[in-house]
Amino acid sequence: MNNWILLQADGMSGIMGQVFLFGSIILIMYFFMIRPQQKKQKDAKNFLESVKKGDNVVTIGGVHGKIYSLEDDTVLLELDKGLKIKVEKSAISPEFTKKANGIK
């Protein structure tokens, strides 16, 4: 009878160990995967909101240009004198723009 009670108590500590292990894995995933991605998205959103006329930018496709005019969700880029293209604001890459302008 005593052995049966001891075996049940040992089983509960095993479950608690598994819960602790599962909780640890979730915390590690949050701090190494989810949180940095959220920070990157926030920085990209702030960058896109802060672009203004005359800024040199690079699109996701690698097109370099200067912002000629801004609308709600679109940007008119001047690639060369008289050559302008219209792109979505979300197509501007914060990472490539910072590299091209020498900003870290």
From TrEMBL:
Location of this chain's protein in the cell: Cell membrane
Keywords from the UniProt entry: Cell membrane, Membrane, Protein transport, Translocation, Transmembrane, Transmembrane helix, Transport
Lineage: Bacteria, Pseudomonadati, Bacteroidota, Cytophagia, Cytophagales
Family as reported in the entry's similarity comment: Belongs to the YajC family.
Protein name (record): Sec translocon accessory complex subunit YajC
Pfam families, sorted: YajC (PF02699)
Organism annotation: Rhodonellum ikkaensis
Membrane topology label: Single-pass membrane protein
Entry annotated with the keyword Metal-binding: no
InterPro entries referenced in this protein's UniProt entry, alphabetically: Preprotein_translocase_YajC (IPR003849)
